[in-house]
Structures are given as structure tokens and as C-alpha cells.
């Protein structure tokens, strides 16, 4: 009898212990019962400082989250350093975040070249490089870089969509391509050529690259114009895209002008270039324009505008960069919520790579976020858009890229 009682007692003890073990909290460096440390570098100064408002919006979002009680009861400590869009500086600052501040993960490091500079380091350290602010293909490669996930739509895919658009809408175009001499520009260039297919060699009559450090791109624009091109694709970041639009207007050259999604900000690109000069520019989009009357009663847009008014009142609520900062921060919080009490780096990547139809407040209707362990692409849906001199006009159906890359 004693043996039976002892056996039952042992069984009950095991049964009672099982839920406790199951509920046991798991932490890696950077996470505790009260805090989650997240690290970021951003160009708060330097040639790409137009992107600084993204980081400011993200910091404001985390202030809001913390004021509301944090994520699963933990405050998010977003540690931000300026890297001036300089890869050597990014390396220095990311090492400081990982080895000094001991963050759980990095989030939204901004820029293709800065992210490339720390890609191998973060993967070797097994520190999540989460939602990197770039669309270069190497940042959605789970086989070779399982700790890295980009956020931006693939530059190659976006370029391919422009190529397909040109074939359909401007089949006789003479195409000139202005491209930034790094992974961003190279991916766009490869993408538009893939979209044009076997007609690329004939249709592309000029290519001109520029270095990010160059003060102007005037000579490149003149070279493309002199080639006889009547359609220009600018695979550029904000400063150079604005320069291109302005230069076209100054010299009276009026090609069909496509700009990439990175340069689509009205406040940071089109206004500095001149709204009249920017009229007719074509791009793609996947987010709502906050001031567009069609979103006046949209609940997601209302939440965004309320957030900007309370937590970032000095920011331009109509800036696409601030919309971008808002949705990326919203997605990070979603991943951290899914992690529950398992705040290990491995689980962060597991949750990030198992997102299913996640809605974000400012995504266009019909666009959601889905990832899998073999498909790290967060954004693979677009809608074509044309600038009418005041706002982007969306047209056509949502385009979903089905290919892996």
C-alpha cells in the first residue's frame, strides 16, 4: 500500500511540475522579467539623414508601447546609435550594441551597405538582424543567413515589376537607368533587366551609376539624356532621386520617370525636388497615404494619426518614412508578443519566420505580412502609383510576386 501511495504521490508531483516546467521563462542576453533590449543604428546624420525620421518614429512608438505597459509586461528598451550611413561606423556601433549593451536583437538597421557590413558578424554571433531596412536579396536568404530578415520589398522583385510595366505600357521605350553603386542599385538594375527579358539589351540605351558620396548626379543625368532615352528609371535613395527630378525639370527633359519605392516620400523627396517638377513620376506603394481622403475613416489610419499627434508631434504625419517607421515598429511588437515568455534569440527568429496574414495599420487593403522558415520576404505585394502634383494616386490591382526571387 505504501508503495502504491508513494507511486501516486510521485506521479502527482510530476504532473504538477509539468505545467510549471512548461511555463518556465526562458531568456537570452538582453531580456529579463522587466525589459527587452533592442539595438539599432540609423543615419541620424550624413548623406542619408532623410531616413532619420524613421528611427525617431520607432523610438516614439516604443515610448507609446511602454506607456501602455510594455510587451507582455516588459518594457522595450530601444537603444539607437548614429552610424551616418557609413558601414565602418555601423560595424563599430553594432559591436557596441551586441558586446557592450548586450541587446537581445538588432532591429531595422537602416540601409543596404550598413546592413551588409554587419551581416556575417551578426549571423556568427547568432543575434537576430531583424527587419533590416533594405530590400537587397541577401537579406532574405534563410539558408545562408538564418539570423537575418529584411523588411523592405525586394529591390530585384520591384525592379522586375517595373520592367514588366514598361513592356506593357511603354513597349517602344528607350530606357535609361540611373543606379546607386551598391547592392541596392545592382539589385534594381538586375531586376528591371529580368522584367524586360530578352528585350532588355535593345531597350536599355544607357546606364549610369553614382557613388553615394558624390555631391550631385548632374553628369549622369546628362549622359542618359544624350543617349536618346525617353524613359528614366532612377534606382536611387532620397537625396539623389530628388536631385534627378529637379535636374530633369531644370533642363526641360520630360522622359517617363520611374523612381524606386525608397524615394517615394513626398516630404523628403518630392517637395525638395519641387511638386510641379515631380508631377507624373511613377513608382509603387504598399502603404496608405495618411492625408488621402479615402482613408479619413479608416481605423488603422486614425490610430496612426493619433499616435503621431501624441508621441511624435514634431514629425511630418504625412511622411512615408514615418508611416514606414510606424509599421515596422508595430511588426516588431507583434513578434515580441508572439515570443511570450520565451525571449531567446532562437525563438525571436522562429516567431518572425512564422507570421501569417498579419495586418498592419497602414498597409493598403489586401496586403498583409506572411513569412515562413523558407521564405523570409516580409513584403512581396505592391500597387502601381503616379504622383499627381499633390499626392500619390494608386491604380491597378495589388501585384503579388509569387516567385522566390
From TrEMBL:
Residues 1-23 form the signal peptide. It comes from the Bacteria. The keyword Signal applies. Pfam families: Peripla_BP_6. Keywords: Signal. Residues 35-388 form the Leucine-binding protein domain. SUPFAM superfamilies: Periplasmic binding protein-like I (SSF53822). Gene3D superfamilies: 3.40.50.2300. Belongs to the leucine-binding protein family. This is Branched-chain amino acid ABC transporter substrate-binding protein. It comes from Rhodopseudomonas palustris. The lineage of its organism: Bacteria, Pseudomonadati, Pseudomonadota, Alphaproteobacteria, Hyphomicrobiales.
Amino acid at each position: 500500500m505504501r508503495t502504491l501511495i508513494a507511486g501516486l504521490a510521485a506521479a502527482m508531483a510530476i504532473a504538477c511540475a509539468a505545467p510549471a516546467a512548461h511555463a518556465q521563462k526562458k531568456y537570452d542576453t538582453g531580456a529579463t522579467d522587466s525589459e527587452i533590449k533592442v539595438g539599432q543604428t540609423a543615419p541620424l546624420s550624413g548623406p542619408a539623414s532623410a531616413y532619420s525620421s524613421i528611427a525617431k518614429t520607432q523610438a516614439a512608438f516604443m515610448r507609446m508601447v511602454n506607456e501602455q505597459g510594455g510587451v507582455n509586461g516588459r518594457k522595450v528598451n530601444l537603444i539607437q546609435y548614429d552610424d551616418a550611413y557609413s558601414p565602418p561606423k555601423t560595424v563599430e556601433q553594432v559591436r557596441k550594441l551586441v558586446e557592450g549593451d548586450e541587446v537581445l536583437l538588432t532591429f531595422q538597421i537602416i540601409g543596404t551597405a550598413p546592413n551588409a557590413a554587419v551581416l556575417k558578424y551578426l549571423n556568427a554571433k547568432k543575434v537576430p538582424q531583424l527587419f533590416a531596412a533594405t530590400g537587397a536579396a541577401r537579406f532574405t536568404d534563410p539558408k545562408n543567413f538564418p539570423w537575418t530578415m529584411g523588411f523592405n520589398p525586394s529591390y530585384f522583385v520591384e525592379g522586375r515589376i517595373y520592367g514588366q510595366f514598361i513592356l506593357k505600357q511603354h513597349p517602344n521605350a528607350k530606357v535609361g537607368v540611373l543606379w546607386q553603386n551598391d547592392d541596392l542599385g545592382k539589385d534594381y538594375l538586375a531586376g528591371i533587366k529580368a522584367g524586360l527579358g530578352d528585350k532588355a539589351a535593345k531597350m536599355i540605351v544607357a546606364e549610369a551609376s553614382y557613388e553615394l558620396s558624390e555631391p550631385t548626379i548632374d553628369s549622369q543625368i546628362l549622359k542618359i539624356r544624350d543617349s536618346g532615352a525617353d524613359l528614366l528609371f532612377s534606382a536611387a535613395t532620397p537625396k539623389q532621386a530628388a536631385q534627378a527630378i529637379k535636374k530633369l525639370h531644370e533642363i526641360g527633359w520630360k522622359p517617363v520617370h520611374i523612381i524606386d519605392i525608397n524615394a517615394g516620400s513626398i516630404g523628403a523627396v518630392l517637395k525638395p525636388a519641387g511638386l510641379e517638377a515631380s508631377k507624373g513620376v511613377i513608382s509603387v506603394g504598399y502603404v496608405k497615404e495618411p492625408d488621402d481622403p479615402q482613408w479619413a475613416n479608416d481605423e488603422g489610419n486614425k490610430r496612426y494619426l493619433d499616435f503621431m499627434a501624441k508621441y511624435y508631434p514634431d514629425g511630418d504625419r504625412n511622411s512615408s518614412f514615418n508611416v514606414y517607421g510606424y509599421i515596422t515598429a508595430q511588426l516588431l511588437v507583434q513578434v515580441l508578443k508572439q515570443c511570450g515568455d520565451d525571449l531567446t534569440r532562437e525563438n525571436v527568429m522562429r516567431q518572425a519566420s512564422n507570421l501569417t496574414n498579419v495586418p498592419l495599420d497602414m498597409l493598403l487593403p489586401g496586403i498583409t505580412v506572411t513569412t515562413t522558415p523558407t521564405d523570409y520576404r516580409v513584403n512581396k505585394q505592391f500597387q502601381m502609383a503616379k504622383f499627381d502634383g499633390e499626392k500619390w494616386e494608386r491604380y491597378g490591382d495589388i501585384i503579388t510576386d509569387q516567385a522566390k526571387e
